[in-house]
Design a protein that fits this description.
The structure holds 2 protein chains of 2 kinds. By secondary structure, chain A is of the alpha/beta class. Chain A is built from 7 helices and 5 strands. A 3-stranded parallel sheet of chain A has the order 3-4-5, with helices on both faces. Chain A has a two-stranded antiparallel sheet with strand order 1-2. Chain B is of the alpha/beta class. In chain B, the strands form 4 sheets. Chain B has a 6-stranded mixed sheet. Classes of the chains: A alpha/beta, B alpha/beta. Strand 1 of chain A pairs antiparallel with strand 7 of chain B, so a sheet runs across the interface.
Amino acid sequence: MSIAATIGMAALENDLYLKQAEVHGMSQRGGAVQSHMRLSDKEIFSDLIPKGSADIILSVEPMESLRYLPYLSPGGWLVTNTRAYRNISGYPDEQEVLGEIRKYKKYIALDANDIASDIGSNRSSNIVMLGAASPFFQIPFESFKEGLRKIFARKGDKVIDVNIQALEAGRAFADKNM
Amino acid sequence: MDRLLLLGDEAIAQGALDGGMSGIYAYPGTPSTEITEYVQASKYAQDQQIHRQWSANEKTAMEAALGMSYAGKRSMVCMKHVGLNVAADPFVNSAITGVNGGMLVVSADDPSMHSSQNEQDSRFYGDFAMIPILEPSNQQEAYDMAYEGFELSEKLKVPVLIRITTRLAHSRSAVVRREQKEQNAGRIPSNLRQFVLLPVFARQNYEGLLNNQAAMEQEAAASPYNKYFEGSDRSLGIIASGIAYNYLMENFQDRQLPHPVLRLNHYPLPHQLVDRLLKECEQVVVIEEGYPFIERQLKGFQEKGTPIRGKLDGSLPRTGELNPNHVARAFGLDQDEGQPVPSIVSKRPPAMCKGCGHIDAYHALNQALGEYTEGRVFSDIGCYTLGALPPFEAINSCVDMGASITMAKGAADAGMVPAVAVIGDSTFTHSGMTGLLDCVVEKSPVTIIISDNFTTAMTGGQDSHALGRLERICEGLGVETDHIRVFKPTRKNYDQMVDIMKEELAYEGVSVVIPRRQCIQTAKNKKLTERVKELGL
């Protein structure tokens, strides 16, 4: 949710139209959950992304990144955390999952939990992921930082700073591995 | 004015607040829950003392909203589609009484059954009750319709139904607010028999409702939410309603849309607009989310016999929610199917949380039932319904709120002894209490497990009316005190739980077994944790 909220803030700052379809309710109980986010400088109609037309898949779990491949456009980027969340029996071999991800030329795969923990903020792994996806948005990087400042405003400077660090760390990884 | 980034649900809440609402009534239900939660979190609602507590169920909510309307104020009642079944009696009759203060009924449908037992289409209820229906295409319209809906309701003197579906309920977009309206001053109805549905008055009111239909249709014909877009290629005309309109436009934003389009977001169907399309076009395709509501009506009222395409002829899928790809297919447009999902991706179904009390209760129940033949556990709506899935496979039914107790009773009546019901605390106070009374009156041999976690968990941890009242409710309904058994479901207490369940399964009368432990999802809810401590639970 912090990822979506930050993008939302950044989009509003850049005067973009935005639609974001979320999943609430039963599926949230440990099930596969996705959100369709659409940004445009023109009016957006559908809340759902048509298949084969997403610019980015941003996933905080490696197997989940593959579940939504039908939505990815031919030139789109697959950005995913490599840290598996194994709450089901029959989770596939992690190396095979990474192998499937690497089949796509345009991918960024990183262990965001490790990076967040290096910064000293385990809870910021999602913001690391947002940083890693940030080069593929047509939104200035500074706007994401501004978005973080706004959504964490009530939590104080420390929380803001550590999240901006997380954002920058994710961005740095992406810049090196594009 | 303010521009806010709101879910469709939140847009309705904000629209109602800005439109002068004095009270909201609801029971939580996906995808409608966030409407009431938004009002509960609103500083303005708090300052203005706008009613915003949860109700015991959708029927009590609907009746309270009607009472507020009787008193002259503007009220809104919100529910998921199946909640409207629970509230159907007051809903249909509220059209016969009519309103005093404006009254909005919001029903959020769930096509594709993301979190539901069926995908019924609430527009049929609106048609059945013969009241106007508003169906927003986007978040801004959701706001505007709630904002203006009270005035429409007061003008036509009937409740107005706002119908949304999951996708709009849970999608966020920018909404521009309008000027804050004052709440109505209270005033009693000018005719004090208006709400008395004795046959002698009800017949008059019903006559009035029928006579009012023309005015309702006139409103729809002049509504800004219904719009006729000209098109040069009349080999095909298009009717699109609510969120389905977006999927149409999604497919034509880069292409020219050459056909006439009638956008229909305000019902009853305005005949003059529809007739024009039917007369002008060689055939018509109807794109709507849910059941073929418009499509079926069109087959009825046109003289010319224009062929109609839609869900009934298979142009669009009959089940599930629509998406842009379905609509593209209906128009024969080229579309990308995307890349396939790699075969190694395994399913990740929802499951009860690690450490959940329901899990311990199910392990014990399965053990206690070991000596009986299988297939005797009736359950209900809540997180514990997930006990149907492996590794538990502990329950054999999930039908509607409260049905566990009454179905167990019916099975016991048929000779299935013991019959077991598994129900949550909030579901029990929603619709389980009356069924328990039936059991007590007949001393039915049923064992009712009320898995108490102090909250309405599945929808996100809303207040439970049962909190601190459960044993007293059961005693009050006549369950023998010796057969109300409370314990904490933990691994440590496993043997004790199994023993208690075995004893009560063997008892040939009404037993209530209450495994009681706070929902782990509410661990961060300090207010609830404190209250639980205070009550000594």
